[in-house]
Write a structure and sequence with these properties.
Layout: H1 2-32, H2 37-52
Helix pairs in contact: 1-2
Length: 66
């Protein structure tokens, strides 16, 4: 477990870059397909990622009053 935490702390920038690239590519593919089913799946994935982040997709900070 210690090795996993150490690896994550050493490589977090690369992991986030790859994750961002995967979401970007998935968004492009989803926009090209005519079915709404894959749109819903991607929306759920993005909402999970937004819940784990400090900044929401709309640019506001989590917990900040609107």
């Amino acid at each position: 477990m210690t090795q996993v935490i150490q690896w994550c702390s050493e490589n977090w920038q690369g992991v986030l870059a790859v994750l961002g690239g995967v979401v970007t590519a998935a968004t492009a593919v989803v926009k090209l397909t005519p079915t709404p089913k894959d749109d819903a799946i991607l929306a759920k994935i993005i909402s999970v990622l937004a819940a784990l982040s400090l900044v929401n997709p709309d640019g506001s900070f989590v917990g900040k009053a609107k």
